[in-house]
Amino acid sequence: MSPADRTEPIDPSAAIAVEFALLAYAPGAAIDRDLLAAYAAAAAPNSLRAFRCDIGAFDDWCRAHAHRTLPASPSIVAGFLEARAGQGAAAASLTRYRASIAKLHRLCHLPDPCQDELVKLTLAGQRRANGVLQKQARPLRFRGVVKDPLSDAPRGINVRAALEACADTPAGLRDRALLSVAYDTGLRASELVAITVEDIVAAIDPDARLLRIGRSKGDQDGEGATAYLSPRSASALTAWLDIAGIETGPVFRRVVVRRYKARAARGTRQDQSERPRLERAMGPDLVYRQGRRARADRIRRR
Q: Check: CATH 1.10.443.10 for 167-244?
């Protein structure tokens, strides 16, 4: 069972070109391909995904209310922000929506409606009414919620129990290494999957390792940083890399890819050649209900 290699990433500028082309069918709106490519090269992949999601939500709302997406008026943007707030969007989400809509208009060389006082006051009113407190997940500690992390026994949900729960299978060894490295470094998911074998270097402690971080969300310019990997993480990484046979490239990969062969139709499936005759004799509604009942019986037997 050798881990599957990664697929080649899709060109981000091409990924958002279709959405822009659909939105640009408006008087005075046009796509600047060079500007679009420059934005795609400057923005992080997660930023591009968030931008596409925000613009898609705005476009859907505009279509549902018979508004024009481009160019949008300040009243349209304010109405969209109020509608999203009514659906439970947090203040941070509303701020991101406004930034995405403003970016969309700038990329299309259109006046920015988000600079209007109506949009600013609408956003300020929502922040004042709903507050800006963000929900945060509870911290996951190595021994759980204990007074003395060095002497007290583990309690509750903790990293140590999660590591011990990982089996000695390829998938379990990979998960144990992933959890241990994540606890040591505090990296985000996108940063963890970007780790390569070449990023892991020797440390002064022969049982530990150092991890070179080329780029992160807080380091968009790629100045780089170094994180310490404990002997626990170094041992878990060695076990995973050895059993997976990984010597270069990405560290954390898929383990098993299941492929199912096509199966012949079962005898209980209704013969399509007999359907016209049955419909003439029994009626189409009864034939349809019988077909649904047969499919439900097959699902229950599984």
A: yes
